[in-house]
């Protein structure tokens, strides 16, 4: 073990290199081991950490998405201060149960999938917001591994995008991409593996910054969500 | 929020105070996300690293009181190390054989005088006194999280030259700060 008189200028710079994390892994581990047994070296490390942390003064703060905080609190405490994504989905699910199977079947006939012969399972739902200003018919065909979207009402606010999410029961929402601004009819890919071991699943539409969520997780309000019904 | 207030919050977090944790998050998450984003350059990865940082803070807050750090240094160090761990986990590690242990000669005496008072101003001024390549190398190492091998590539110099630059930069910085 070293004592204070053993500290050379070289040791001090070694401590600085350790803090910067520029050293290759073996040298870095050697420095960490030394810090654990040599309080003087450990003190040098702390001094460098303090000195160098001031460099972050030039970094502008970036406000995290609100969902990052919700996720963090859930991970740590298992509780969410606000209604969770799934709870909100359940709320919407309740609303859309009002759609009868017959209504879904008839809309399927009107807007139905282009493939006349259906082999794999087909799921369908209608996504609508509470004022019906946004209405989307979604049909999933296992054969094409895509969700055919038919938007009968609504569009993204100027400078914003509508993003479609796949939510397997008990899973986190996965983005399927943003809806086209101009096309009322389009097909978004839904890989069959996402449905592996999934008993029931939902689709949701959120309002996101232009081009879609910057985080890969929903950041904007849920405009509509609904469980898929197997036909 | 002052240093004292952040210290008090971390002290409460160490006792399991969730409300204090919430306030600490609100006060510092944007700064820490900035630090993570600078290293990871990807919003989703940076938010994950920032979350991991706060998980570590929650679990280790009791160790803060005894280690004598300034609170922001402690938080920034955790955020930075967490981000670098992530960055390097996703990349092949540098070839260890490229590395030879060269020892820098004593650095030149830093020139000029320090006029500012606060420590942050002092380090800013001392940085300004460094040779531009040396301060750029230290910043790229600290702020971008680059190891020697990548710094050498970025500045297009041999690895040993990079190590000499950086160590001389550190020596000059220390001498300037101790004036």
TrEMBL record, chain A:
Pfam families: RskA_C (PF10099)
Any one GO molecular function term: sigma factor antagonist activity
Domain annotation Anti-sigma K factor RskA C-terminal: ranges: 101-222
Lineage: Bacteria, Pseudomonadati, Pseudomonadota, Alphaproteobacteria, Rhodobacterales
Database matches in InterPro entries: Anti-sigma-K/W_factor, RskA_C
Record GO biological process: regulation of translation
Protein name: Anti-sigma-K factor RskA
PANTHER family membership: ANTI-SIGMA-K FACTOR RSKA (PTHR37461)
Cellular-component GO terms for this entry: plasma membrane
Origin superkingdom: Bacteria
Coiled coil: none
UniProtKB/TrEMBL annotation, chain B:
MF terms in GO: DNA binding; sigma factor activity
Pfam families with a match to the protein in the record: Sigma70_r2, Sigma70_r4_2
GO terms (BP aspect): DNA-templated transcription initiation
RNA polymerase sigma-70 region domain boundaries: 24-91
UniProt KW Transcription keyword: yes
Domain called RNA polymerase sigma factor 70 region 4 type: residue spans: 121-173
Keywords: Sigma factor, Transcription, Transcription regulation
Family statement drawn from the similarity comment of this UniProt entry: Belongs to the sigma-70 factor family. ECF subfamily.
Listed name of the protein: RNA polymerase sigma-70 factor (ECF subfamily)
Organism encoding this protein: Yoonia ponticola
């Amino acid at each position: 073990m070293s004592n204070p008189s053993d500290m050379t200028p070289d040791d001090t710079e070694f401590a600085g290199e350790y803090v910067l994390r520029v050293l290759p892994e073996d040298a870095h581990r050697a420095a960490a081991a030394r810090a654990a047994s040599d309080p003087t070296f450990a003190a040098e490390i702390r001094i460098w950490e303090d000195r160098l942390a001031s460099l972050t003064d030039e970094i502008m703060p970036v406000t995290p998405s609100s969902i990052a905080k919700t996720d963090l609190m859930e991970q740590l405490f298992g509780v969410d201060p606000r209604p969770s994504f799934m709870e909100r989905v359940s709320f919407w699910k309740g609303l859309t149960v009002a759609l009868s199977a017959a209504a879904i079947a008839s809309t399927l006939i009107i807007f139905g999938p282009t493939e006349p012969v259906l082999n794999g399972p087909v799921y369908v739902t209608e996504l609508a917001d509470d004022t019906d200003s946004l209405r989307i018919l979604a049909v999933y065909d296992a054969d094409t591994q895509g969700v055919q979207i038919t938007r009968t009402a609504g569009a993204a606010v100027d400078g914003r995008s509508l993003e479609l999410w796949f939510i397997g029961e008990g899973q986190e929402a996965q983005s399927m991409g943003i809806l086209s601004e101009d096309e009322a009819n389009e097909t978004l890919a839904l890989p069959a593996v996402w449905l592996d071991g999934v008993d029931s699943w939902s689709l949701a539409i959120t309002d996101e910054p232009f081009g879609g969520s910057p985080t890969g997780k929903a950041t904007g309000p849920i405009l509509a969500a609904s469980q898929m019904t197997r036909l | 929020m002052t240093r004292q207030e952040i210290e008090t919050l971390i002290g409460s977090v160490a006792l399991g105070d969730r409300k204090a944790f919430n306030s600490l998050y609100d006060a510092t998450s944007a700064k820490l996300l900035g630090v993570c984003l600078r290293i990871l350059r990807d919003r989703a990865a940076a938010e994950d690293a920032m979350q991991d940082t706060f998980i570590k803070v929650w679990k280790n807050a009791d160790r803060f009181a005894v280690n004598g750090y300034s609170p922001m240094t402690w938080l920034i160090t955790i955020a930075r190390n967490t981000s670098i761990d992530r960055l390097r986990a996703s990349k092949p590690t540098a070839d260890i054989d490229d590395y030879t242990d060269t020892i820098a000669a004593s650095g030149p005496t830093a020139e000029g005088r320090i006029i500012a008072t606060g420590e942050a101003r002092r380090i800013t001024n001392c940085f300004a006194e460094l040779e531009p390549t040396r301060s750029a190398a230290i910043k790229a190492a600290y702020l971008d999280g680059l190891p020697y091998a990548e710094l050498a590539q970025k500045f297009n110099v041999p690895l040993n030259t990079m190590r000499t630059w950086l160590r001389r930069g550190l020596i000059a910085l220390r001498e300037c700060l101790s004036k």
